[in-house]
Fold:
Amino acid sequence: MGSLATETRLVLAVEDAFAGLEANSDGLVRLRDIAAAMGMTERTLRSKFAASVGMPPMRYLRLLRLTMAQQALRRAAGEGMTVTEVALRYGFLELGRFAVTYRRRFGECPSATLRRSIDDLGGGVPEADGDRSEPASSATCPDSVRPGTYPASSRSDPPGAER
Structure:
């Protein structure tokens, strides 16, 4: 790892380049775009960043976007946003992958964070008998299902298969 000053300068430069490119682009920002904005090659950026920060720059930026998504979900109830809107806003186009990555990083699924945000505002969804919904801590989100596998509650053969 490099010195704290070098690490801080490099991280800030990458974040600034990313933010500038993100604000002026229609699509996803690529490493080559960040490197070009910083005036260096991809290889140089990757090696300097990994030596200073201990991870590749795109992984760092993905974690940064994930943290920003978590903060947005914490505020989402007041803004009336959904998990999908937050995920897409921060560049997570594959929603299932976003949920799995989010859960690994923060120990809960994005919908649980959103539910807690709603509960904190006193806006929990009431049950038919007037009771409030269960607290977010008891909420679970489904694990991802790999292609070719099906949840235990479903039939053992894939949908559309002849019996």
Summary: The chain has two domains: 1-55, 58-147. Residues 124-140, 143-163 have pLDDT under 50 and may be disordered.
